[in-house]
What does this fold into?
Amino acid sequence: MLARRLPGLLPALSFEEAVEATSIWSVAGRLNPGQGLLPSRPFRAPHHTISVAGLVGGGSPLRPGEISLAHRGVLFMDELPEYGHAALEALRQPLEDGEITLVRAKDRATMPARFMLLGAMNPCPCGHASDPEPDRCICTVPAKESYRRRISGPILDRFDLHIEVGPLRTKDFLGLPQGESSAVIRERVERARQVQRRRFARHPGLHCNAQLTGPALRKLVDASEAARARLARFIDEKNLSARAHDRILKLARTIADLEARDRVEEKDVDGAVQLRCLDRPVRGGPGTGRLTSLQLARNAALNRAPGASPGAILREGT
It folds into this structure.
């Protein structure tokens, strides 16, 4: 249910985005007779038994897959390690490029696939590795490691955020005061997006922090020397990739936008690091804790433009 709240936190579809998404649904034969433009961002949640062709597209004639049906919206993959290895690895290119090129015999087609990817997984096969009562987990250490290895390093590296959410006891949620509504959070998201649009007004093709890569990222993100030094130190200590460095920097930039700060400071880097639990040890070993929460959605919604891809682990791309 938390995952389904995510589209409501994102800015409304622009006319151009609605035309793009509706065109894909029309090609796939998913529109009802007489239906107009899609009224809201798509939300797709394919079962973990889905084939590679079903996920990224294929067939004869070539048809859009779930990643294209989720264009400008959200693709939710629950029980992420249960998906086929080939299906997960097929996400690499579209997550980076925002499109997928399909080739079958003499047919060739390039389809849009710029979506926000939200993945959720248990801490171990039995699901109790992060439970306060450690005896509840019946999994061996090799079983936990094998479960985690079902998701390759390159795929994990492409997620912008990963958050551990521990087990919730009945007394923890009964009687809790009502939190912020989706409408309130959405307003905050839109304000941050407006800041980013103004920042990139003189840079064609850039609309939000998520689209920054390479030289543009280093040029357009104003960070203090102390913040850059802290980030470099964290990357070195954890032996992380250049891709992880860039994702943390973009996330820190987004946090600063939320706080209405022009410059990224050390505390923004610290906040970004805290939203990437798989980059540091967590209780119960690597990858423990159920990775899905609305907190992740709230933060990731601000980090990327509507349309691309992202413990829940999330890669933002809309």
Summary: The two ends are 20 Å apart (CA to CA).
